[in-house]
């Protein structure tokens, strides 16, 4: 059973990456937040991993830390919520935001995830309210990522002009330890310069570059 991978980023796709571990490439599925926080190709990365073994496949799911991994396990324990939907939820809600949404019964926040309708959102709230603890800290950064902020990570949310993807990108950057004001300014510049609204993973990745420059 694979529980953790440390290696080099070999390739990145829409919902996956390949980690090269001593010449062996492991295909790992991940949330948009995790993919957006990855270092560049060829750079070192460390991921916590949950292995799903089925009759027809073995899938690896990678996470930036134990909080995201534990929440993935809780999400997939709910009837009708598979790995793909769980990653969709984790793509739009960081660990702190997800814990808050469950604790406060915020169906609107949960339905921002692709494939999650009001009924599924209510089921998540009902089944996880007593299982998902509030998180005192935020999601830790990825090992080997360039340009990370100094000091401890900061939890919480920050708003960004335009809401939607921009808000989610700011939240992800804050969860990675950047100050809300800096994250909001970086995302606002990127959204302003873009011809059309970029995908969340691209906006997070570009935001990390912007903040590291």
Write the layout of secondary structure elements.
Elements: E1 4-12, E2 16-21, E3 24-29, H1 32-36, E4 44-53, E5 58-63, H2 66-76, H3 83-92, H4 95-104, H5 107-110, H6 118-128, H7 165-175, H8 180-193, H9 200-212
Parallel strand pairs: 3-5
Antiparallel strand pairs: 1-2, 1-4, 2-3, 4-5
Helix pairs in contact: 2-3, 7-8, 7-9, 8-9
Describe the protein in words.
- 42% of the residues lie in helices and 17% in strands.
- With 213 residues, it is α+β, with helices and mostly antiparallel strands.
- Strand 4 and strand 5 form a beta hairpin.
- Helix 2 packs across helix 3 (83-92), helix 7 (165-175) runs antiparallel to helix 8 (180-193) and helix 7 (165-175) crosses helix 9.
- The longest helix has 14 residues, at 180-193.
- The termini are far apart.
- The relative contact order is 0.14.
- Mean pLDDT is 80; it is low at 135-163.
Low-confidence stretches: 135-163
Strand-residue proportion: 15-25%
Sheet with the most strands?
5 strands, mixed, barrel
Q: What does the overall shape look like?
A: globular
How many H/I helices? 9
Give a short summary of the structure.
By secondary structure, the chain is of the alpha+beta class. It has nine helices and five strands; from the N terminus they run βββαββαααααααα.
């Amino acid at each position: 059973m694979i529980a953790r991978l440390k290696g080099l980023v070999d390739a990145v796709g829409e919902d996956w990456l390949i980690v090269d571990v001593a010449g062996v490439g492991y295909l790992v599925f991940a949330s948009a937040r995790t993919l957006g926080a990855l270092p560049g190709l060829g750079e070192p990365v460390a991921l916590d991993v949950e292995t799903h073994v089925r009759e027809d496949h073995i899938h690896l799911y990678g996470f930036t830390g134990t909080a995201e991994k534990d929440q993935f396990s809780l999400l997939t324990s709910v009837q009708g919520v598979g790995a793909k939907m769980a990653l969709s939820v984790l793509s739009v809600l960081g660990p702190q935001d997800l814990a808050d949404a469950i604790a406060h019964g915020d169906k609107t926040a949960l339905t921002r995830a692709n494939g999650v309708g009001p009924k599924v959102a209510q089921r998540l709230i009902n089944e996880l309210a007593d299982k998902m603890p509030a998180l005192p800290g935020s999601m830790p950064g990825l090992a080997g990522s360039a340009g990370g902020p100094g000091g401890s990570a900061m939890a919480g949310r920050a708003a960004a002009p335009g809401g939607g993807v921009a808000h989610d990108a700011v939240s992800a950057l804050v969860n990675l330890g950047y100050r809300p004001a800096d994250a909001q300014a970086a995302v606002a510049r990127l959204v302003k310069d873009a011809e059309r609204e970029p995908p969340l993973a691209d906006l997070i990745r570009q935001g990390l570059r912007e903040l590291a420059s």
